[in-house]
Write a structure and sequence with these properties.
Blueprint lengths: L1 E10 L2 E11 L4 E5 L6 H8 L7 E6 L2 E2 L4 H5 L2 E4 L11 H11 L4 H14 L15 H13 L5 E5 L7 H14 L4 E6 L2 H7 L2 E6 L2 E6 L1 H5 L6 E7 L3 H8 L8 E5 L5 E7 L1 H6 L1 H5 L1 H11 L6 E5 L3 H22 L10
Length: about 350
């Protein structure tokens, strides 16, 4: 298990990671999701001991990465965005070298190299120079060096960046396979990738943790509110009158349907949902019941679930806006403002 406690990283006046707190459990695949500059790579670099935090700590199986970095690092394998490869070595030479660095006992080095090459389909290129291999194979070698010392946790920074579609699919399948034996933490700014691979998603923006949960939990909406859409041939006044016993005018927004019907988008707040068991158990039946009691005709009543993309954009909008303001304030092409 990994515990991140009050983690902060500053670069001068800029805060890259801002008081992060979260826990990583065993046997799951976690995804750090966020726009460029959100603090994903910085957080991972601190978790692996590559960077020192400005404040806070990371405990890996109870061992502090700040106080006892060597001991903590024995529990993790790390693949940075650019794999740390030596192109003039063969695959076997490089993995043997990585195993020595990771203090794998000499009698076990060959055994461990053979095992990770077999797991990652590298046996056929064991004696080839790394510089002669494709980017997809080099990414596999990067994964192999992270696994050679049998760590409980794998930390992967943008593991599919720069790969072609076929290679991306192969690496994703490898990660899913590795997730059956290891706890895996990966970073990405690709929504589909994180949603497909990860059991739990942590959304970062501006160095802060904005939300966490499974893809299903996140797409249900962060506020706890429920959105229901009604399509009806009735006019707005009649629809509002039908809903008024339970819902206010401010909760309903109207728009026109392409077929000339009225479309009512109803937002039901968390407190209303919590206080009405009938509404919480079946929102569609609740709304259609109100319409039926008022003899208000309707064609459809649907629950609108927020997509992961919508949630992501809502949670990261503040960082994007701040970045745009900063870019607008900076002199173009590095020129001084007075030039």
């Amino acid at each position: 298990m990994i515990e991140v406690r009050n983690l902060t990283k500053r670069y001068g006046n800029r805060i890259a990671v801002d008081d992060l707190n979260f826990t990583i459990g065993q046997g799951r695949i976690y995804g750090f999701l966020g726009p460029n500059g959100a603090g994903k790579s910085t957080t991972m670099n601190i978790m692996t001991g590559y960077l020192a935090p400005s404040a806070g700590d990371v405990l890996i199986d109870g061992v502090s990465i700040v106080d006892m970095p060597e001991k903590a690092k024995t529990h993790i394998g790390y693949l940075p965005e650019i794999p740390p490869l030596y192109s003039d070595m063969t695959v076997r030479e490089y993995l043997s070298f990585a195993a020595e660095l990771r203090k794998v006992p000499r009698r076990k080095i060959r055994e461990r190299c053979d095992a990770v090459m077999a797991d990652l389909s590298l046996v056929e290129c064991a004696d080839r120079l790394i510089r002669n291999l494709s980017k997809g194979y080099r990414q596999r070698i990067g994964l192999a060096q992270a696994l050679v010392h049998e760590p409980e946790t794998l930390i992967l920074d943008e593991p599919t960046v720069g790969l072609d579609p076929k290679q991306i699919i192969e690496i994703r399948e490898l990660i899913k396979k590795l997730g059956k034996k290891h706890t895996v933490i990966l970073s990405s700014h690709i929504l589909a990738e994180v949603s497909e691979i990860c059991d739990t998603i942590l959304i970062l923006s501006g160095g802060k943790l904005k939300a966490s949960g499974s893809p299903a939990e996140l797409t249900k909406g962060q506020s706890g509110a429920i959105a229901v859409t009604v399509t009806s041939p009735a006019d707005e006044k009649k629809i509002l009158a039908a809903l008024s016993p339970k819902l206010s005018k401010g909760q309903v927004r109207f728009s026109s349907d392409p077929a000339g019907l009225v479309r009512a988008e109803i937002t039901i707040g968390e407190e209303t949902v919590r206080n009405d068991p009938e509404l919480a158990s079946d929102p569609r039946r609740f709304v259609s019941g109100l319409l039926a009691q008022a003899s208000c005709p309707y064609y459809s009543v649907e629950i609108m679930e927020s997509s992961l993309e919508k949630i992501f954009l809502e949670l990261t909008e503040e960082q994007e806006t701040a970045a745009e303001r900063k870019a607008a304030a900076e002199p173009e092409n590095g020129k001084e403002a007075g030039e």
